[in-house]
Structures are given as structure tokens and as C-alpha cells.
Write a structure and sequence with these properties.
Strand content: under 5%
Number of strands: 0
Low-confidence stretches: 92-104
Radius of gyration: 28 Å
Order of helices and strands: HHH
Shape: rod-shaped
Number of domains: 1
Helix content: over 70%
Structural class: mainly alpha
Mean pLDDT: 67
Length: 108
């Protein structure tokens, strides 16, 4: 990783430039803290990129759903109800929730 490479170079530079032991230890400690901070930022950036990608998928799904005709939406709701009834029949009573607003209690 790039952050680790920067950390390694910083430690090498500190060891080659600092001749007094206490200063060397302080610099190494500072670079370690900096490395951890950079790593934390990189981890957060990755998490944000993942959330952004998921949001883009949801938006894409929403636009696809939005462009559907009323007939297609009704077919989708009917298929979802049928699937819900089938799952309930085989014992998966805990299946709930729907992005289309189908009431799971209405399946009974």
C-alpha cells in the first residue's frame, strides 16, 4: 500500500538524519502516529466509496422502477405477493418487508 511505503521512507529518513536518541524516538513516534492517521483516512475513504457505489446502485434501481409502466409495476407486485405466499407455505413465516409496499400481514 502507498501509505505503508510513505511510512517506511519516513522511518528510514528519521533513522539516517537523527543522531540523538531521544529525538530519534520522538520522530519515530510522530511518524507512527502519522501513519496510523493516514491509514484511518484511507479506511474511511474506502468505506465512503463503498457507500457511494451502493447509493448509485439504489438510484439506478429507482430510475429503472420509475420508468416502469403501471402494468409492469402491478405485475411485479403480483409476483412478489405470489413469492411471499410460497415462502410462507414452506415455513418461512419470518419473511417480511418490501420495497413495493406489499403488506406482509395481508398474505394471511
Amino acid at each position: 500500500m502507498r501509505v505503508e511505503l510513505v511510512h517506511q521512507k519516513a522511518l528510514r529518513w528519521t533513522r539516517s538524519r537523527c543522531c540523538r536518541r531521544p529525538l530519534k524516538q520522538e520522530m519515530e513516534c510522530a511518524f507512527d502516529q502519522l501513519w496510523h492517521a493516514l491509514y484511518d483516512v484511507q479506511s474511511r475513504q474506502t468505506a465512503i466509496e463503498t457507500e457511494l457505489q451502493e447509493l448509485l446502485w439504489v438510484m439506478d434501481d429507482y430510475h429503472t422502477f420509475k420508468s416502469m409502466t403501471v402494468f409492469e409495476v402491478e405485475q411485479l407486485k403480483s409476483a412478489e405477493l405470489s413469492l411471499g405466499r410460497t415462502l410462507k407455505a414452506v415455513g418461512n413465516i419470518g419473511v417480511t418487508g418490501s420495497c413495493l409496499g406489499v403488506d406482509p400481514q395481508g398474505l394471511e
